[in-house]
Every structure is written in structure tokens, then in C-alpha cells.
Amino acid sequence: MSLERFINQQTSAWMSGTGPDSDVVLSTRVRLARNLDNVMFPTIFALEEAKKVVERINEAAFDKLSLELLKMEDLSSLQKRVLVEKHLISPFLAETSLYGAALISDQEDVSIMVNEEDHVRIQCLASGLQLKETLDKANRIDDVIEQQVQYAFDEKKGYLTACPTNVGTGLRASVMIHLPGLVLTRQMNRIIPAISQLGLVVRGIYGEGSEALGNIFQISNQLTLGKSEEDIINDLDSIVHELMSREQSARDALMQTSPTQLEDRIFRSYGILSNSRVIETSEAFQCLSDVRLGIDLGYITHISKSILSELMVLTQPGFLQQYAGGPLRAEERDIRRAALIRERLEFEGTN
């Protein structure tokens, strides 16, 4: 496995759209934050310590986990941006951790970030709603590493982390969920504050500070201290099922009260994507959201529902510039984005 493989491989396993409840939930992610005992946190340690941590984690994972080591110092800014767009590394690791690294699986469903905010961040991704299964997978990987290293752990506080909000289980579980019905029926402005009061947080597709493009939201737990892993997963799972139920009710209401307008919106968006020569990210995501809704409701039958997950990555600036072979101005990216979407839809139509 090479760096080029991760950069050039268009889709990851979690984008397949084949997981449970994938008509609403695009993907599940579980992340475990860990630090090595008696080693300073990445925010304050020295270069030599950073390199030793990378070596220790790579050695701990090498024998039993089939993962490829990518060092941030060996990557260009564009290559790191592509990995961020594929959700394989965080923006923090790409932008601030020169001596960080990532160990990534062939299917891109496992990524271990080293020397990000914490020494180790184990991340597992899956298609659809698979919180318990994804946590089990992350815990198995965690056990493999813990057999080789000593974690910073306190009997009362749990796992010790650089950020106080991760102390305890160190678990961050999230789902990427497509909620066009709730957005179109103007319910999301009421739902988001209610979710926050339950100890969960609603963000955009790339986490903290990112925009909820294409009616896609990331729902995750906010607290890790004072709750067990099982409690965190069960609470999130319960809220996601409630959101799924409300989204389905909103879609049913739209089909009953304004079916012609809904169908018109879907096919107008399909027409824009099929024919545009220039398209910006926000417009592309909105139209892709409408088309995905049309697929889920049965209006559009010749396109696979994985198209939203795929194109929300493939039309990002990093990917567009990677395929172009170099930097592109904003207008050039908009032209290439439109061409890529047209080609993708044409491919679906002929296959």
C-alpha cells in the first residue's frame, strides 16, 4: 500500500451506502483518545519525544493490524488536505502537527492518528448506523495497542487526555446524518437546541467549526466523563433513531402536502447537476442532497444512493486539485467540479 493509493482511491468503504438505515444515516464514526503514560502531551513535548511516540505506536500496531504508516512531514499540503476530505485525518493533524502521523487501513475504515491533540486517536468508520459494532472494532484495536504500551490512566478520572472534555472514556461517537425533510419543513432550528440540552452536539460534516452543507449534520456526544461507553453509545443511538423517525415523518408530509413541488425540486437539482458547466461547493451539495432525497423516495431509480457520500468528498477542493495535478483558482475548481459531477451522473446512466 502506498501514499498514492490513499490519495487517488476515490471512495472509502464507509461511503458505500450499504449499511443499516443508510437512507438517512450516511456513516458512523467512533474515536478513542489515548495518551502514553509518563510522556508529555503533544502540545508541549519535544521533537525527539514526538518521533519516539510514532515509532512506539507503529511497532505496537505492526504485528496484528494491517495498517500503512503515513508521516505528516512526508506529505504535501495538498496531500494532507485530501486525507482530511476523506475523513482519514483531522484538520488539526494536517495543519498543526508536523511530526504527527496516521496509520490507515486498506479499506480506509480504520485510521489511527498519532501526535494529534493526543498521542493516539483510534478512529473507525462504517456505512450507515453501526454504533455498537464500530465501538467494538475500535476497542479491539485499542486492546492490541495497549498490550504493547502503557496508557495514562487514573482510577477515578479514567483515560487522561489533553482536552478536559475527552477525559474519562476518551470516546467520541458520531453519526453523519442526512436530514433534508427536517430542513425543508423548518424543524431543524428547534431540534438542534433540544439535542444540545441532552449532552450531544450538532456540527457540520467536518466537525467543529464546519458548515452543515447539503443538509448533512454530524451528531456526537459532548461528554466522556461520568458515563460508560455503553451509556454514551445508547444515548446517541436513541437520539439518532428519534431523528430518523422525525425525518421520515417530514418526508411523508412533504410527499402528501406538496408532491408536485417536491418532485420539481428534485428534478431541477438533477438537471442542474447534469448540465452545469460551473458550480460552487454549496450549490453542488444542495443539489446532491435533493437528488439523494429523490433516490430515497423512489423518484430517481437509475443512480446509486452512495452518490452523495462519494461526491461530497470528490468535489472538495483538495480532490479537485489532486486530479488536476496542481493548484487551481476558485473558478477553475468550480468548472472541474461541474465536469466531475456530470461525468459521474453520465456513468451511472450508462451502467
Automatic annotation (TrEMBL):
Single Gene Ontology BP annotation: phosphocreatine biosynthetic process
PROSITE patterns: PHOSPHAGEN_KINASE (PS00112), PHOSPHAGEN_KINASE_C (PS51510)
Entry keyword Protease: no
Activity regulation info: Appears to be allosterically activated by the binding of pArg-containing polypeptides to the pArg-binding pocket localized in the C-terminal domain of McsB.
Boundaries of every Phosphagen kinase C-terminal domain copy: 24-250
Keyword ATP-binding: yes
Alphabetical list of Gene3D superfamilies matching this protein: Glutamine synthetase/guanido kinase, catalytic domain
The protein's Enzyme Commission number: 2.7.14.1
Protein role: Catalyzes the specific phosphorylation of arginine residues in a large number of proteins. Is part of the bacterial stress response system. Protein arginine phosphorylation has a physiologically important role and is involved in the regulation of many critical cellular processes, such as protein homeostasis, motility, competence, and stringent and stress responses, by regulating gene expression and protein activity.
Family per similarity comment: Belongs to the ATP:guanido phosphotransferase family.
Protein name listed in UniProt: Protein-arginine kinase
Natural source organism: Domibacillus iocasae
Higher taxonomy: Bacteria, Bacillati, Bacillota, Bacilli, Bacillales
